Amino acid sequence: MAWSSSNRDARFNPGWERTRKRILERDHHRCQWIVTDWHTGAKHICGYPANEVDHKVRAKNGEPDDDSPSNLWALCPYHHKQKTARESGEARVEKRRSREEAEWYSRPAFR
């Protein structure tokens, strides 16, 4: 879903810009995504320049987002896009599963 047709921005708190700026400053404008080195298995943060703030755990079922600092982190555009794509895929799978379950229980045997 594109932002232009989304109502998600209506769920932002009125002080979001101030919160966003505070998180970017806290994280020194560096991506906090955890990266695993393929050769050594060592984990470290991405560290690329970040200009986006994301919720580590997204809200479910239209609930308001948890804007506490512990649930927010700075991400570079690449990792933010990756995380959003993964969450979108998970939501599509869950929606399909829910539709299939509703269809199954709408059969005459369950009425």
From TrEMBL:
Keywords, ordered alphabetically: Endonuclease, Hydrolase, Nuclease
Biased segments, Basic and acidic residues type: 84-104
Stretches for region Disordered: 84-111
InterPro entries tied to this protein: HNH, HNH_nuc
Domain HNH: from-to ranges: 46-86
Pfam families, per the entry: HNH
GO MF assignments: endonuclease activity; nucleic acid binding; zinc ion binding
Domain of life: Bacteria
Name the record gives this protein: HNH endonuclease
Source species taxonomy: Bacteria, Bacillati, Actinomycetota, Actinomycetes, Bifidobacteriales
